[in-house]
């Protein structure tokens, strides 16, 4: 057989393989209960379902949808309206779900899920200054001042800081930064909370390999996003 025939057959086989894999795709997300219909069920259904699935009351969900539409933070598209975009985000964040799970729930491709997740995330971030108010850190909690059991020990403490490691998935190039002592990948998340049992600030994205003490020193420097404080023994102390 002519060698050119072998080359021709190989080329035809390669083209056929490419066409079957990339050009003649068979839709995989074909459920009758597509995302918009499921969101409509939640909006009009029992309050318990919205709390379970979106981790928020449906009244608040609709208020936030209206806010995003009114301010132009999000736009309805031909395939996904703002309510479904928000529900995609809340489904993933509120239940720690994966992109693949969201694909099945909303019947969209992974690229679509990822795109709308980041759009909604940016919308939330843009509202930071409107809804987040940092504590001034000037006053010791009433619970501390009024209780002799606590005041002598915590009279200068405004709030406490603690950190925890949360698993992450990052590109291979960043594995070294986020590999912890147990040789798994995680980010070190710092949380500041007052004695009223309320979170007042959270700093996420810290490298797992960096010592906690180094981050505490960084947070105490001028220019930190945290309120002006001194950090001693894991507690935030008022500057006198």
From TrEMBL:
InterPro entries the record matches: DUF8040 (IPR058353), HARBI1-like (IPR045249)
Transmembrane region(s): 185-203, 215-237
One Pfam short name: DUF8040
Domain of life from the UniProt record: Eukaryota
DUF8040 domain segment(s): 30-125
The entry's keywords: Membrane, Transmembrane, Transmembrane helix
Record's protein name: DUF8040 domain-containing protein
Source organism: Hyaloperonospora arabidopsidis (strain Emoy2) (Downy mildew agent)
Organism classification: Eukaryota, Sar, Stramenopiles, Oomycota, Peronosporomycetes
